[in-house]
């Protein structure tokens, strides 16, 4: 059964004032919407996909068909992107960097994490929190850590000149707010990753932001960084939403730079974990991460870019010294006042609804609705 949470609980505090892009799962099929003045407008006759709407900004909501007040609409929200690539940046915060080093040294074994964490924090913590990535000071710190036998591939992307940028999921594979989110059934050490996600157009300009959960499998990636794809790209492993807030005079990239994200995990056994991620602690500016994503690459349909997270859970859940890991039935809420709340329930990737609506299916649906000129 889907989570029974009203639309209004997902929306930003000032949702009637901002402008938002999103997608609704209407009976006819996936439908791009523009929300303005609190009213949702079906924009499918203006452009049948969000990726095409983005290229037409600024948009006139009056060119669409008014559906009514957004908080009164009884239709599921899909992930607010469609044909855009979904990219992600890793280890962009000092705390999460140290946790990646811990995973690597523990070889994915949560039982070893506490002792390793204490040593790494003592030797590296202070330095890595102040150094500017790619600077002369960063190179000097790297030389010192190599000499002490503490260097790691994760530290390379944390303080070196190149950010880690990877492809999170295929086009159209992300799930939206209130959908089940998937964790691999063979993972025993994992956690959510609450992040701000930028929406970037085909020209490389950031046009808005949303929330994302870049599910992290600490045991699998910890065994080898070469397992990143297996750890990150699984059925229902990427959640985005609830909507993309478009940049305007009242919401700018500085709001992203200063966003405070809260995270709440409510377990079926009564467990509760609260965390946060402060974007002002990020090691690389969000627009620098966009620039590095675009370096020697093009994205003709645009892209969504996860910016990374400060959150790294160490609070024990069941056994002492084993930290946090998900259980089926966990409800994860990621929220910030200007972007709203992304709420998802945890299941396994095997048990989550299978991904069946790819690009061909989308275009067949659009053709059948007369929104494009021919069948896929």
From TrEMBL:
Task: Note whether Hydrolase occurs among the keywords.
Answer: yes
Q: Which GO terms describe its molecular function?
A: hydrolase activity
Database matches in InterPro entries:
FAH (IPR051121), Fumarylacetoacetase-like_C (IPR011234), Fumarylacetoacetase_C_sf (IPR036663)
Metal-binding: present as a keyword of the record?
yes
Q: Which UniProt keywords apply?
A: Hydrolase, Metal-binding
What are the residue boundaries of the Fumarylacetoacetase-like C-terminal domain, all occurrences included?
Answer: 201-346
Concerning Pfam families, the annotation shows:
FAA_hydrolase
Say which family it is in. Belongs to the FAH family.
Designated name of the protein: Fumarylacetoacetate hydrolase
Name its species: Novosphingobium ovatum
Q: What is the lineage of its organism?
A: Bacteria, Pseudomonadati, Pseudomonadota, Alphaproteobacteria, Sphingomonadales
């Amino acid at each position: 059964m889907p989570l029974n949470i009203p639309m209004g609980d997902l929306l930003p505090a000032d949702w009637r004032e901002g402008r938002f892009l999103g997608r609704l799962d209407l009976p006819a099929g996936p439908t791009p919407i523009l929300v303005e003045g609190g009213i949702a407008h079906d924009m499918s006759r203006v452009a049948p996909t969000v990726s095409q709407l983005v290229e037409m900004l600024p948009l006139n909501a009056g060119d669409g068909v008014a559906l009514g007040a957004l908080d009164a609409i009884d239709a599921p929200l899909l992930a607010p992107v469609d044909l855009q690539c979904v990219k992600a940046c890793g280890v962009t915060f000092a705390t999460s960097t140290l946790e990646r080093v811990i995973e690597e040294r523990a070889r994915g074994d949560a039982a070893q994490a506490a002792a390793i964490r204490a040593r790494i924090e003592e030797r590296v913590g202070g330095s890595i929190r102040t150094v500017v990535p790619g600077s002369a000071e960063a190179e000097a710190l790297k030389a010192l850590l190599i000499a002490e036998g503490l260097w790691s591939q994760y530290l390379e992307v944390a303080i070196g000149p190149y950010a880690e940028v990877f492809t999170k999921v295929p086009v159209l594979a992300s799930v939206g707010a209130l959908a089940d989110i998937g964790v691999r059934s063979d993972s025993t050490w994992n956690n959510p990753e609450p992040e701000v996600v930028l929406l970037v157009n085909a020209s490389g300009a950031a046009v808005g932001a949303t929330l994302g959960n870049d599910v992290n499998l600490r045991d699998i990636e910890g065994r080898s960084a070469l397992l990143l794809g297996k750890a990150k790209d699984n059925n229902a492993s990427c959640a985005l939403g609830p909507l993309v807030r478009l940049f305007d005079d009242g919401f700018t990239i500085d709001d992203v730079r200063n966003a405070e994200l809260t995270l709440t995990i409510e377990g079926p056994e009564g467990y509760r974990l609260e965390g946060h991620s402060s974007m002002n602690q990020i090691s690389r500016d969000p627009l620098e991460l966009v620039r590095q994503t675009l370096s020697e690459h093009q994205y003709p349909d645009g892209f969504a870019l996860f910016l990374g997270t400060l959150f790294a859970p160490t609070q024990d859940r069941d056994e002492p010294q084993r930290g946090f890991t998900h259980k089926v039935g966990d409800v994860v809420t990621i929220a910030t006042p200007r972007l709203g709340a992304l709420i998802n329930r945890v299941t396994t990737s095997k048990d989550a609804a299978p991904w069946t609506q790819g690009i061909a299916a989308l275009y067949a649906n659009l053709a059948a609705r007369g929104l494009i000129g021919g069948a896929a």
